[in-house]
Amino acid sequence: MAEAERKSVVAIGDLSFEEALAELEAIVKGLEGGQQKLEEAIGAYERGTALRRHCEARLAAAEARVQAIVEKEDGGLGLRPAE
Amino acid sequence: MDEPPPRPNTPEFTVSEIAGAVKRTIEGAFARVRVRGEITDLRAYASGHLYFALKDEGAKLRAVVWRASVPRLSLQPENGVEVVATGRLTTYADRSEYQLMVDRLEYAGAGALLARIEALRLRLAGEGLFDAARKRPLPMLPRVIGVVTSAQGAVLQDIRTTIARRFATPLLLWPVPVQGEGAAARIARAIRGFSDLPAGGPIPRPEVVIVARGGGSLEDLMAFNDEAVVRAAAASTIPLIAAVGHETDTTLIDFAADRRAPTPTAAAELAVPARVELEAALAQSKARLAGALARAVQAVRLRLAAAAAALPDLPGLLGTARQRLDDREARLGLAVAAVLAGRRGALSLAGQRLRAGPQGLAALRLRLARAGAALPDPPALLAASRQRLAAPSARLGPALLAAIGARRGALALCGQRLGAGVRSLLARRQRAAAPALARLSPAAITARLVLERSRLDGLAGRLDGSSYAAVLARGFVLVSDDAGHAVTRAAGISPGASLTLRFADGTVAARARRGGGASGQRR
After folding, report:
1. Which backbone phi and psi does B518 adopt, to 5 degrees?
2. Counted domains in chain A
């Protein structure tokens, strides 16, 4: 049980924002449908909460950095901060 | 008369001198010109120089593009194309020619340019480069946004401020010239360069790419109509947003891009969602999530309560069962003790009798004698029975006789109580109404007596009704022996004894074939 939980949390970390949001929306709809068994509902709620936290973390991780690509002599690429 | 030919006063030039003079004149008079004409006689030499001629209806002008200028041309010269060539007019003295050294070529007139763009659009559309099926959805929230535009200028600034306002996201700029010589090739390379970035490499791979340029003339935007740029945009493995020029400008990259934005600011708005809206939507999801679970739990709790109400009272059931168990246990203990005590008593009695064999025998004899003495005298019994049989209820058996006797006794008692009651009534009446007593008719008393008599008769009738006659009518038989005694036990019948069987409607004489009782009962 704890193993599966940890696994699902790891899986959430790999989700993109929109995947997490879509799954969260599906969970909310499923819960609101009220057809789930109580245990499933609680599991869904926990997953939904984890997804929400993941989305919120993604929203909080905002960064306005700008970098520019530099094409080097040897054909490679580099980065430099751009104003 | 005979004059030497007059020395011409026109100056004399060598060929080279005149060529040089012409050159100076032409270059001085036409330092830099723009010439419009149709390209013809186009030849590319191995040296890299490009030769052609510009012609119109009445003239032809030789033109050359030096190798160094060729890469900077904004169009690829073709025969039959009407262009405006910019350059210096000069002479080629070797051939007595003048020619235009071209450093810039433009399509002549918007109409011609648009016609060329349209032709390219049709060709690329025919290849399916602009098919709707090729369009990929933009990611909702890209982690990195690639931008292909000029490092200077308002475009990048517009994109930066819009991204920062909506949702601060790292930008990766691939700086390119957006017009002029070589711009198209640089733009195409930048688009391909972003696509070629490996995921997880040192340079973060953008999840969406914006190709942008501010407004300008049709010629200024031509790099974005370039076939290489359009093909690169169509081949991009990263979803691509094109935002070139103003809203009214349309370039071919718009058709190849996954999304077209009218301005760079609009492109930035397409690239990232507004963070406040996402946060609001997320907060709403959070509330719905908690609410839905609370409702689910509440519904289950209600069902649980309903189910619990329907459950039997288990503690009560257990209590009852325990009580019954305790009861059985107590009775079990008592029963065992009683059985043991009984067996022990019987054992000791048997032991006593065993020990006192002769004495026991004597005692038994004594008891037998006593029993014999106590036995009623048969003749006397017979006489008594005859006496009872002589009574009016001759048919009555001994038991019924007793019952009748009892009833009769009760009746007599009733009669006595009646008499006493009447007497006391009379006495009371006499005492209470002595004056009226004289007038009182004895008829009332007589009537009362008659009433009591009829009740008595009724009781007698009911008494008769309960006689054994009714039992006989139901199929039972009254058996009596020779003496007329009712035989109630088989043990009392000896073999060959004559018996009288009384049915409801008469009597039958019978003889016993075998003596009474089961053999086991005989002693």
Report:
1. -70, 150
2. 1
Do B172 and A36 make contact, defined as CB atoms within 8 angstroms?
A: no
- Across the interface, whether the CB atoms of B193 and A77 are under 8 A apart is answered yes
Integer Cα distance of A31 and A19 in angstroms? 18
DSSP β-bridge partners for residue B36: B84
E strand spans, B151-247: 171-175, 208-213, 240-244
Predicted ipTM of the assembly: 0.74
The number of angstroms, rounded, from the C-alpha of B382 to the middle of its chain's C-alpha atoms is: 98
User: Residue A53 sits in which domain range?
Assistant: 3-79
> pTM for the full model?
0.51
The CATH code of the domain that includes A54 is: 1.10.287
A72 sits in which H/E element: none
Q: Do B170 and A64 touch (CB under 8 A)?
A: yes
CB B479 within 8 A of CB B379: no
What element of type H or E holds B96? Answer: none
Considering only CB atoms, B175 lies closest to which of A17, A62, A68, namely A68
Measure the CA–CA gap between B286 and B22, rounded to whole angstroms.
Answer: 87
| pLDDT 10s digits, B85-144 | 999 999 998 988 899 999 988 888 777 778 888 999 999 999 999 999 999 999 988 989
CB atoms within 10 A of CB B320: 11
